[in-house]
Here is the input.
Amino acid sequence: MAYVRKDAGTLTGAEKRRFVKALLEVKRRGEYDEFVRMHIEYFPSDGEEGLRSAHMAPSFLPWHRQLLLELERALRRVDSSVTVPYWDWTRDRTTTSVPWTEDLLGGDGRRSDHQVTTGPFAHREGNWTIKVNVTDDSFLTRDLGRSREPIDLPTSDDLKWALDDPVYDVAPWDSTVTRGFRNKLEGWDTGRDEGSLRNHNRVHRWVGGAMLGGASVNDPVFWLHHAFVDLQWYRWQRRHRGARYLPEKPPGPRDEQHGRIVARHQKLPPWDLTPDELEDVGRIYRYA
Here is the structure.
């Protein structure tokens, strides 16, 4: 029977406590840091050589869907009632709203070094030491809204712009495409300033701190953010019945993207799964 992922803003006090407790236990067991390592390993951009499976590519959505499922399975081994909630950043848009509360993820980082000092993931609580990172920080950091150069979170209109596109992705299947649902949701733009970032990417920039770069998994909000991104794929599939993951077939040997992206029926590293197998997860979970 499919379980339910809920809006973080609707969680009861007991549901918040159980989610936090399970997350801290996964961290204590050492499993959590493996997710951080994996995300760093699969962070290469389309300016680098080799296969891109996690970012700047069509498989951005199924790759993160499977990562979410792996984390959720780890949580449910601790407490079978727990699922990953989602953060609706089109509605909960302030630095004090859900999920930035003392009983869930804690709040913003302090001005001096952006260290998070409130909530269960604050370093001083002793349960969330950063062990795998791309910087020397051993504590969780945030800079909500980017205090020195403020930016806003994406809006419902930004999401609509992505959801309205009936095509999943288009050639050359990277961060430069201006059409296709995938990149409109992932949020790369041809502009070079950070103001050009859209949807998923803009949220990472708005949270700041640990959420910038390959080690973004170190902030638990990563999962709530990506659950909401995954929900958009779920919604897009229902809005455009029959629309599928693209490309269906891998680019040919003369194509510059040959061997650099994952087609619908190819294996999605590091798992023995294809994007095709991850398009329909209704038997596993649904969204409230």
User: Anything to note?
Assistant: The chain has a mean pLDDT of 96. Residues 3-287 form a domain with the di-copper center containing domain from catechol oxidase fold (CATH 1.10.1280.10). The chain is about 30% helix and 0% strand. The chain has one domain: 3-287.
